[in-house]
Design brief:
The structure holds two protein chains of two kinds. By secondary structure, chain A is an all-beta fold. Chain A starts with a strand and ends with a strand. In chain B, strands 2, 4, 5, 6, 9, 10 and 11 form a seven-stranded mixed beta sheet that branches. Chain B is globular and about 40 Å long. By secondary structure, chain B is mostly beta strands. The chains are: A mainly beta, B mainly beta. The interface between A and B is medium-sized, with 28 and 32 residues.
Amino acid sequence: KQEVTQIPAALSVPEGENLVLNCSFTDSAIYNLQWFRQDPGKGLTSLLLIQSSQREQTSGRLNASLDKSSGRSTLYIAASQPGDSATYLCAVRIAGGTSYGKLTFGQGTILTVHP
Amino acid sequence: DAGVTQSPTHLIKTRGQQVTLRCSPKSGHDTVSWYQQALGQGPQFIFQYYEEEERQRGNFPDRFSGHQFPNYSSELNVNALLLGDSALYLCASSLMERTNTGELFFGEGSRLTVL
């Protein structure tokens, strides 16, 4: 059974800092990994999607890496801003069988960026 | 281009009642998945619909049922509501032909409170 863990559970940083969020998964047989952002009481906004054959993806100040063999992904946020405050979730898509694209999520990292 | 839309946004029910939640997928998408997110947790997969059939199901009781219509929209029904059913219910859409490699797009969710 695939399990996804995110560390830390919560993180508070001053504005301008670079930061790293961690995600680990127990089964390396995945199609891809997706990072999401969730504002309080809202839905999920897709940030980055990394296919299993890729090592990293970048979008603006965000960079996500994937090491499938070790079951790890990191989300790097450069020059953090108060508007980055949100919960960040990672999710993996299991390969094989009849998974039909089911995502398994971590519990999220709550990020607070203070001015 | 409309994204994933869900209704209602909030609703309150009492134990034992039944509820129906609705979802319209992103334009061009043919597959709808439903997730339950309890407070402070990551989303949990309920089931997925494609071609008006349930294709895969997570670890949820039969009280949770769904339907997909010819226009690809979907409904989630929950019978005999329990206090523990209180959660944010998220709908996600995707393309079946890219079910293993494509992004999932989520709606804003329906917040269900059971009293």
